[in-house]
Every structure is written in C-alpha cells, then in structure tokens.
Write a structure and sequence with these properties.
The chain is an alpha/beta fold. It has one domain (68-231): NAD(P)-binding Rossmann-like Domain (Rossmann fold, 3-Layer(aba) Sandwich). The chain contains 10 helices and 8 strands. It is globular and about 45 Å long. The structure holds NADP nicotinamide-adenine-dinucleotide phosphate. InterPro entries: NAD(P)-bd_dom_sf, P5C_Rdtase_cat_N, STEAP_metalloreductase.
C-alpha cells in the first residue's frame, strides 16, 4: 500500500494525518523541530503515524508538503526530486509578505511553487478547505454524502496518484488543470473554503461543515472569477 510522508505538523498536516490513521495509511510526520517534538502528537494520532525527519517523510511514496508559503519557497527541492508532492500552501500577504508575481496575477501560487520544486511531480491540494473540515467531511467511497476537493497538476500521472490517495482518505477529487487555472481555488474565490461551511451552524469548534459533491464543486470552480490579488490586504 502507498505510504505517505507529511512535512508540516500544523493544522493541515495534523488533519491529513488523522485521515491517514483512519484509512490505515502508514505515514511519517515531520516538522521543523525534529521527531522528538512530535512524540505526543503521533501517540495521540495512532499506530499508523510515526514521527520522522523531513528526509524520512520525503522518502515515502507520496509527500504532502504543508508548511507556510515562505518556507515552501525556501524548501530544498532536491529532497523531493522524483516524488509526487501535494503542496497545500496559500498566499496571505499579511503573513507571507508581498510577492509581486502573485500580486500582479501574472502567475498562480501553484505555478510559482512548482517552478521552485523543480524535479518533483507537483500537485496542488488540500488548500481550499479549513483544516478541521477534512476529518469532519471524510466518508468511505460510495457514501451518498461524500465530498470532493480540487487537485491541480500539469502531470497526469501525479494527478492520478493524488486522486487515488484522496479516495483512500475519504474524498473525491475534481481536477483543476493546467496549474495556470488554479487561481480558481485560491484565497477569496467562491471555491475557497466557503463551500464546506454550513451557514446554519456557526460553532467554530464543532461540526460546522456541509458535504460538497464533486458535481457541485466542479460547478463552483467553473463559476469562479479571478481575485485581484494585489488588492488583497490580508
Ligand atoms: N490552516 C488551514 O486551515 C489551512 C487550510 C488550507 C491551506 N492551508 C495552508 O497550508 C499550509 C500549512 O498551514 P497550517 O495552517 O497547517 O500551518 P501551521 O499550523 O502554521 O503549521 C506549519 C507547520 O510547518 C512546519 N514547518 C515550517 N517550516 C518548515 C520546514 N522548513 N520544514 C519542515 N517543517 C516546517 C512547522 O513546523 P514546527 O511545528 O516545527 O514549527 C509546522 O508544523 C500553509 O501554506 C497554509 O496557508 C492552511
């Protein structure tokens, strides 16, 4: 069975590890501080999840890279050469600083980062959903209320592998290709986080999500209009 490496043990890294534990996917979780700092977290997550170094996580079959955008831009690309990498990062100028190529809408976050992660088999994923909604909405294949996530890639084989992983983790996938089109699922578009929020339940710590079918997500992505990134202040 496919093994998973997760680099970044924050909100999204922990949420994806929770899905992996439920699905029985052997996973190595890494962060910037080293495996010792993850002892309590992996014990809590369960027996499928172990703590490792960044290199150990990068050696698994598929790698989820889920660290801040500024760290992704500095991540040593050679560690991920040849790997299917699912990058989750989003651009928040207030956190990441202004990036002229993104502010001008000249490129997308995924094009920028795939160019940096040269040699990897790049996929954009898990970026348009609030972390807590990932475990809330995961369902087995065939469930009537299964939800979908977008996956962006210019690499059909990597996209197929990421789609299969998502299926194992409890999610359908909607392809967004080529990467130049992934602005459709970037911050502040109609496809970004809002579809998964249930407007009738506002308890931020509880089940405040609603299922989003692949068909519904496809329609939302098609209807998205591009945000003027340079005008964003957050
Ligand atoms: N939070 C969300 O709901 C959400 C939703 C969609 C997408 N995203 C995007 O996904 C990415 C991660 O978000 P998050 O909220 O999960 O972040 P987070 O909670 O702040 O966690 C970031 C993690 O990245 C690790 N890290 C930072 N630099 C690293 C490096 N060079 N090597 C290895 N690990 C490194 C940190 O390690 P330490 O723990 O050792 O500091 C930490 O575990 C961001 O780009 C964010 O925009 C977030």
């Amino acid at each position: 069975m496919t093994t998973l490496g997760i680099i970044g043990s924050g909100h999204i890294g922990t949420a994806v590890a929770t899905l992996a534990q439920r699905a029985g996917v052997q996973t190595v979780l890494a962060n910037s501080r080293g495996p010792e700092s993850l002892t309590d977290k992996v014990a809590e997550l369960g027996d499928q999840i172990s703590a490792g170094t960044v290199a150990e996580a990068a050696a698994q079959d598929i790698v989820v890279l889920t660290i801040p955008l500024v760290a992704t831009r500095e991540f040593p690309a050679e560690i991920l050469a040849g790997k299917v990498v699912i990058d989750t990062s989003n651009y928040y100028p207030s956190r990441d600083g202004r990036i002229p190529e993104l502010d001008s809408n000249q490129t997308t976050v995924s094009e920028l980062l795939s160019a940096h992660l040269v040699g990897s088999r790049y996929v954009k994923g898990f970026n348009n959903i609030a972390a807590r909604h990932l475990p809330q909405l995961a369902r087995p294949a065939g469930a009537a209320d299964r939800s979908a996530l977008p996956l962006g890639s210019d690499d059909p084989e990597a996209l197929a592998q990421a789609t299969a992983l998502l299926d194992t983790l409890g999610w359908d996938a909607v392809p967004v290709t080529p990467l130049a089109e992934t602005w459709r699922v970037e911050t502040d578009t109609i496809a970004y986080t809002a579809p998964y929020f249930d407007p009738d339940t506002t308890d931020a710590g509880g089940e405040d999500s609603r299922p989003v079918s692949a068909e519904s997500l496809r329609e939302t992505i098609a209807a998205a209009t591009r945000v003027d990134t340079g005008a964003r202040t957050v």
